[in-house]
Amino acid sequence: MAHAVRALWPHGRAVAWRLGDRPALGLHAQGRAGFTRAAGGSGPAATARKGGPRLLGAAALALGGALGLYHTARWHLRAQDLRAERSASQLSLSSRLQLTLYQYKTCPFCSKVRAFLDFHALPYQVVEVNPVRRAEIKFSSYRKVPIVMAQEGESLQQLNDSSVIISALKTYLVSGQPLADIITYYPPMKAVNDQGKEVTEFCNKYWLMLDEKEAQRMYGGKEARTEEMKWRQWADDWLVHIISPNVYRTPAEALASFDYIVKEGNFGTVEGAMAKYVGAAAMYFISKRLKRRHHLRDDVREDLYEAANKWVAAVGKDRPFMGGQKPNLADLAVYGVLRVMEGLEAFDDLMRHTHIQPWYLRVEKAIAEAPQ
């Protein structure tokens, strides 16, 4: 049962027109000089000379405009071709991967990975792990979820830790490096946590392994890259730790949370019944201990509201997402963590009492509209 309770709490258009205007202006000047020289003439020949430069000027103006339109259309078509080439390149890379995600559906870390995979339209299979027996991941010495198994040709790679999974796969999509090489950039490291327990940490897990040109194309500047990393870590180190005390805040909320966990999870009939009642009672008391460990307020909703509003303030009013016009990895991480509360009282309170709902719905829409 100790494993079961981890299911929701696991650890140039203007340029083109100028190109058209310049010849027209030059020919107009020539036309005015010709008209002055012919002004003393008379008869049909003079009339013809008088009208000829005007016709040439009008023709030149039309030609200049057409040239401008041509260059504009050519520029737009080339831009579309480049976007199509990048999309095709990413599609080609993603089609070379066969991904299997081992998860608990209600785990915030697993939800982060699903948000990333769905937004980037990466096809994957899901294996729902039984939180009690965990037989589905008996092949792995790493016993936490999420785990992603990635088949690339003859190479099969195991990716552990939600942030490593996301960073490695994003690096793969942007750079095209072999995944077997990329995962060597995120070596595991043994450490002892505040409770004296040995844990596995991963170096560089918020860093994408890109060269200078790739990083410039993706971020545009160092500030955007640093900001993304900062808030991805914030989601892991702070936001995720507020979820459990909020969804298990009262006995009724704890029971509702475990009812949701049992419905969405991979439990046997007896296991499900035990998890719903015994697990709910256990997590109600454990959440109190977690509240003290993370120095949360007596009313943990206040910490949840404060965190949500802090995130909204960081995104700001001048951009729809922290990533600008589309979600970046920080947007997807925060969204993925919060999404596990959907359908619970804590989520409804969050939407009512903070300013996060417009941003949340924009991310939800962006993921839903990702090309499949």
From TrEMBL:
<keyword id="KW-0444">Lipid biosynthesis</keyword>
<dbReference type="GO" id="GO:0012505">
    <property type="term" value="C:endomembrane system"/>
</dbReference>
<dbReference type="InterPro" id="IPR004045">
    <property type="entry name" value="Glutathione_S-Trfase_N"/>
</dbReference>
<comment type="pathway">
    <text>Lipid metabolism; prostaglandin biosynthesis.</text>
</comment>
<dbReference type="InterPro" id="IPR036249">
    <property type="entry name" value="Thioredoxin-like_sf"/>
</dbReference>
<dbReference type="GO" id="GO:0001516">
    <property type="term" value="P:prostaglandin biosynthetic process"/>
</dbReference>
<keyword id="KW-1133">Transmembrane helix</keyword>
<keyword id="KW-0644">Prostaglandin metabolism</keyword>
<keyword id="KW-0472">Membrane</keyword>
<keyword id="KW-0275">Fatty acid biosynthesis</keyword>
<dbReference type="InterPro" id="IPR036282">
    <property type="entry name" value="Glutathione-S-Trfase_C_sf"/>
</dbReference>
<keyword id="KW-0643">Prostaglandin biosynthesis</keyword>
<keyword id="KW-0963">Cytoplasm</keyword>
<dbReference type="GO" id="GO:0050220">
    <property type="term" value="F:prostaglandin-E synthase activity"/>
</dbReference>
<dbReference type="InterPro" id="IPR034335">
    <property type="entry name" value="PGES2_C"/>
</dbReference>
<dbReference type="InterPro" id="IPR040079">
    <property type="entry name" value="Glutathione_S-Trfase"/>
</dbReference>
<protein>
    <recommendedName>
        <fullName>Prostaglandin E synthase 2</fullName>
        <ecNumber>5.3.99.3</ecNumber>
    </recommendedName>
</protein>
<comment type="similarity">
    <text>Belongs to the GST superfamily.</text>
</comment>
<dbReference type="InterPro" id="IPR034334">
    <property type="entry name" value="PGES2"/>
</dbReference>
<keyword id="KW-0443">Lipid metabolism</keyword>
<dbReference type="GO" id="GO:0005739">
    <property type="term" value="C:mitochondrion"/>
</dbReference>
<keyword id="KW-0413">Isomerase</keyword>
<keyword id="KW-0812">Transmembrane</keyword>
<keyword id="KW-0276">Fatty acid metabolism</keyword>
<feature type="domain" description="GST N-terminal">
    <location>
        <begin position="101"/>
        <end position="169"/>
    </location>
</feature>
<dbReference type="Pfam" id="PF13417">
    <property type="entry name" value="GST_N_3"/>
</dbReference>
